[in-house]
Amino acid sequence: MSGERNLWSARLAADLRAALAIVMVLAVVPLFVSSPYWLGVLVVSIYFALLALGWNLLAGFTGQFSLAPAAFAMIGAYVTGLLDYHLKAPLWIGIPAAIAGTAALGWLLGRIVLRLKGPYLALTTLSFAEIARVVIGNSYVFTRGDQGLNVPTLMQSRVGYYYLFLGVLALVLVALHRLMRGRAGRFWLAIRDDDIGAESRGINVVRYKTLAFALSCAICGLAGSLYGTFSQLVSPELGLLLQTGLVISMVVIGGMGTLTGPVVGALLVYVSSEWLRAVGNIQLIVFSAAVIVFARFFRAGLWGLATRRR
Amino acid sequence: MTLLRTEGLTKHFGGVAAVDNLALKVEEGEILGLIGPNGSGKTTALNLLSGFLAPDAGRAWLADEEITRLRPPALARRGVLRMFQMTRVFPRITAFDNLVTAGLARGLAEGEAVGRARHLLDELTLSPVQYLDAGQLSGGQRKLLEFGMCFIAPPRLALLDEPFAAVHPVMRDTMARFIRARNAEGHTFVLVSHDMPIVVELCHRAACMNAGRLIAAGPTRDVLRDTAVIEAYLGSGANA
Known about the structure:
The complex is a heterodimer.
Chain A: H1 8-32, H2 36-61, H3 69-87, H4 91-112, H5 118-138, H6 140-143, E1 149-150, H7 158-181, H8 183-193, H9 195-201, H10 205-231, E2 233-234, H11 241-254, H12 260-279, H13 283-297, H14 301-306
Antiparallel strand pairs in A: 1-2
Chain B: E1 2-13, E2 16-22, E3 25-27, E4 31-35, H1 42-49, E5 57-62, E6 65-66, H2 72-77, E7 80-83, H3 95-105, H4 110-123, H5 139-151, E8 157-161, H6 169-184, E9 188-192, H7 196-202, E10 205-210, E11 213-219, H8 220-225, H9 227-234
Parallel strand pairs in B: 4-9, 4-10, 7-8, 8-9
Antiparallel strand pairs in B: 1-2, 1-3, 1-5, 5-6, 10-11
Helix pairs in contact in B: 3-4, 3-5, 5-6
């Protein structure tokens, strides 16, 4: 029956196929694009796609509007950088530590904001993000403050980095699909749609909201940690609210509550922002206008438009 | 056997006693009608029994287990399920997925939840709309769906808040048939309703609240003939 395509498992399967198709297209890009600059742009686009997927898990699938994804990327990058700077810890320790550290902090933040909704939730996560950024920026002795921190690189090859980021993106997509297909994913959707209804059905809203925070922050922490090794420098600028705004606009334009939307949004917004740079510093105006148009007229985003059920 | 028992259950909002010293007994396998005029405390009583509010005083037991301050998920795990006056389905997933999610929340394996969801969709006449998002269903269809979500795994006690309010007569009959069939299987209900004909038709016993207090309890027809109940609905000159 054609209506079965509307079932959650079918929607999600189609969504994953489309997202992996994009990953496969991206996999052949280095055959045609040899410019280190444009490969770098694509690596950063994939970094943003990871952040967008992390934020989307929380906001799009669970309905928890956080303003801290960039802050968690910054924290992840600093965990890796600081472990190297102070303890000479190798990256095979530094990167998992960034994931674990941001997951733990995300879990804690999730517990703090458990009963908050709407603007109160957004403002609390924003406050957390700003406190983290300011503390890192002002702790010169420990973090080298606004001067930033050098991070060792995983490899010298830009193409190698490109495939590393792409592989991580594919893994995150598959992991998110598995999560969303199972019990946790269905409970997150229920919490997003009606947390009181979810509680009345027997869903442990406290546990699943906190889990969503921890996993979302862990994805952002992983992205930040990898980005730090790619750029070989982390600074508090990684956690600027502007970066979070960019992540949100990517998800809104691509399509919230989907796997493909954040990937499409991140690629489109970041790559076109590089093109727009040539025209002048008008990227923010263009993306802000795009967000207004999508929020007003196309709330399902580009992926929602592409899959609109007739 | 007494399935649910409360003693001295009390809840104040500001200076108002919304539920005042409520002593209620629900026997296993019965349908108890909880009636009373608007503002009498019926919904607050359901909120206390389903864990959405914590009482200021008093205690509640499910069989021999005290459940006074348990939260809704803990009560749901013990089989106390709640249906709301304003339906609380998950609007952005299909009716079918709503049922599967409710089944998983009650601890069913996915295959079992899917099987039961299909059966319930048939029984509740929702099969033609099973692939629509729940937000696209009519108010009556959403109420039927919420029935299904309560019964995807058999509850020990179903607390129904105004299930028949603003529902098309055909769906009302479907709901009444569903309640009767489940009750015949031994399920226990507390039914809050203003619809007296259906209370008479379905409920073995009734308990009437007024201004937060229980003013009468007993066989349904006896309660509806009780002077205090008539006065609560119609005013103190009603028997003049």
